[in-house]
Amino acid sequence: MALAIAAAFPAAQTFAQSQSMTTAASVIVTAGRLEQAAKDVLADNVVISAEDIAKSGAATIVDLLQQQRGIEIARNGGAGSNASVFIRGGNNSQNVVLVDGVRIGSATTGGATWATIPLQLIDHIEIVYGPLSSLYGADAMGGVIQIFTKKTAGALAPTASLGVGSYGARQLQTGISGSISDKLSFSLNAAHTEAEGFSVTKPAAGIYSYNADKDGHKMDSLHAKVNLEVAKGYDVGASIMQSRLNAMFDAGPSYDDRNVQTLETLALYGKGKISDVWTSSVQISQSGDQGYTDASYGKSQIDTRQELISFQNNFAIGKDVLQVIAERREEKVYATTKVLNGKRKTDSLAGSYIFKQDAHLASASLRYDHSSIYGNNTTGSIAYGYKLSDALRVNGSYGTSFRAPTFNELYYPGYGIASNKPEKAKNAEIGLYYEQGDNQLSAVYYRNKATDLLVSTNVCPVEQSTHPYGCAYNVNQATMFGLTIGGSTVVAGVTLRGSVDIQNPKDNTTGLQLARRAKKHGSLAAEYSIEKAKFGVETVLSGQRFDDVANKKVLPGYGLLNLYGSYQLSKDLQVLARWNNALNKDYETAKNYATAGSTLFLGVNYGFK
Fold first, then answer.
1. Which compartments is it annotated to reside in (predicted)?
2. Are 151 and 123 within 8 A, CB to CB?
3. For 487-499, what is each residue's pLDDT tens digit?
4. Residue 340 CB partners (closer than 8 Å, separation 6+)
5. How many angstroms separate the CA atoms of 593 and 76, rounded?
6. How would DSSP label each residue in 558-596?
7. Across 59-212, where does the E strand assignment appear?
8. Which residues are bridge partners to 432 per DSSP?
9. Distance between CA atoms of 499 and 522, rounded to whole angstroms?
């Protein structure tokens, strides 16, 4: 794979970044919690543009993320099923996910509930790799994924999309956005997706799991956002999003098992330019992750909620920026299992400095977090970049991070231990970046060493009578290191894109490979445009993985071939077609859980730019 990319992409960027993305990716927000020119961002990153999302034909955000470098996924079935996203070999709970700056995720299981995030309401996505706890606090060990919903700026205009596909898939989105006046703009969007699906389990899953029925899903989602300029340089606004997913799953042959999950976000914000050098912003936000399970083994309800107040100040010092951030986050849990009910507060203070002088780029950040449950944690990072030429830059960085124990790891009966500590990690990396016209290349080597990992173990420091089957405990160490390469170029009118990850996600305690993570994975793609039409081919490749920590259950490697095309009927109207898994590859990302076979998607987009 590495030799193929070296030959095909003499200078390249990332799989997600197509030629059309140059403008969309010119400014990145997530890496420094402020707008930065992409060429000045020291953290490794990927931007998935609105065009990439539109032509992807992806049913879910997980399908979209599966194609990005540095990312692997595991899912218990098809769209609507529980999924995990691994960044650079880290766990699903070791990354932070934001929607328009609002943090989402479950306080009991850790990490985002990916199936509830409505892809149809997303404008673009920023993925920033590496430790970002010094800016975002707990859990930003592998990276941060920020999802930006439909924009409010521009002329008032409607959008709509309609699509149908295999397994009875149907998608519908409609919305309107833009400026009502010089001072007021808004966005309002709604979407519905559904599919009849397929059986998420295979017969080998056993009698207590397998059910031959189709496991379909339905999801309805709504998003609204408004921005008002109250005075020159001063804006206030609000945003709200809600999605409700009703998805079937398998837990035996005799019951119609299903999950009903709801994702909610609400944010109020204000920002203003206090002076020529001082910009201030405040955001009050709330997110909810609610889940109801009706299964053969019983019914349960778990609702988790996060409330965050963030006060951020940026001070311009010439070309440099000094940043000061104060935050308070409160997590709450309401569950059928009463012992999980509770709350915890985290107060945080952070500062960063971004330096830019001639060919030199640098940044440093430090953050202090105090939790009412797990105590104090201080994290920091430092990075330096040097522009060898206008096109070529080399970066180096070092940072620390931590992950907070979940409510399950602290309090779940027979599993949690209240004295469990946060996981901690130290990451060092060096990268080379090249960009000259249509030719782009990035190559990054990283080494992330984690300690005090919370894993399920049979040896518990508590009474066996209360934890007879083991517990969650800080016993493991792991090292995630590897090389990630991405690139794009244009040859004879054909845009070539690709990425490869060569990594070793290793459990240092056992010497074994971390579960569901491969040592090699990557992607290759080619796209050709002729007048109003575009045609493309993509491959997604993954090496062998193991489904368990003991490395006994093998998940064979796989390669997927996807084909797509689109035609611009008019300025505002586009038709597209996509053929995913064209070779009908039978593969698994979780043992004995099925994945979609060869699928066809046909869609129409109106008003998308």
1. Cell outer membrane
2. yes
3. 999 999 999 999 9
4. 108, 302, 333, 407, 408, 411, 412
5. 5
6. EEEEEEEEEEE-SSSEEEEEEEETTT-----SSTTB---
7. 71-75, 83-87, 95-99, 102-104, 122-129, 143-149, 157-165, 169-179, 184-198
8. 394, 443
9. 5
Residue 129 · residue 87 · CB < 8 Å: yes
Task: Report the percentage of the chain scoring pLDDT > 90.
Answer: 87
Asked if residue 13 lies in contact with residue 21, where contact means CB atoms within 8 angstroms, the answer is no
The two most distant CA atoms of the chain are separated, in Å, by 72
CA atoms within 13 A on the CB side of 188: 7
Q: How far apart are CA 201 and CA 106, in angstroms?
A: 25
Q: What is the DSSP string of 28-92?
A: E-TTTTS-EEGGG--S-EEEE-HHHHHHH--SSHHHHHTTSTTEEEEESSSTTS-EEEEETT--G
The 10 Å CB-count burial string (b at 16+, else e) for 422-449 is bbbbebbbebebbbeeebbbbbbebebe
In three-state secondary structure terms, 25 is: helix
Determine the number of helices (DSSP H) and then strands (DSSP E) in the chain.
Answer: 5, 34
- The 10s digit of each residue's pLDDT in 243-271 is 999 999 999 998 999 999 999 999 999 99
B/e letters for 492-519, b = 16+ CB within 10 Å, e = fewer, are: eeebbbbbbbbbebbbeeeeebbbbbbb
The burial of 226, by beta-carbon neighbours within 10 Å (0-12 exposed, 13-18 middle, 19 or more buried), is given as middle
Q: DSSP letters along 247-308, please?
A: EE--SSTTS--EEEEEEEEEEEEEEEE-SSSEEEEEEEEEEEEEEEEEETTEEEEEEEEEEE
- d(Cα 329, Cα 348) in Å, to the nearest integer? 8
Structure tokens at 367: 């953050």
347 beta partners: 328, 370
Neighbours of 97 (CB within 10 A): 23
How far out from the chain centre does Cα 286 lie?
Answer: 19
Which residues, given as ranges, of the chain have pLDDT below 50? 1-24
166 phi and psi angles, rounded to 5 deg: -65, 165
Closest CA to 79 of 164, 190, 172, 195: 195
Among 495, 476, 479, residue whose Cα is nearest residue 487:
495
Q: Are 288 and 262 in contact (CB under 8 A)?
A: yes
Determine the straight-line distance between the first and last CA of the chain, rounded to whole angstroms: 34
Contact by Cβ (8 Å): 86, 69: no
CB 177 within 8 A of CB 152: yes
pTM beyond 0.70: the answer is yes
* Residues written for the chain: 609
Task: Give dist(CA 358, CA 356) in Å, integer.
Answer: 7
Q: Which of 584, 580, 587 is nearest to 601 (CA)?
A: 580
* Contact present, 124 and 98 (Cβ < 8 Å): no
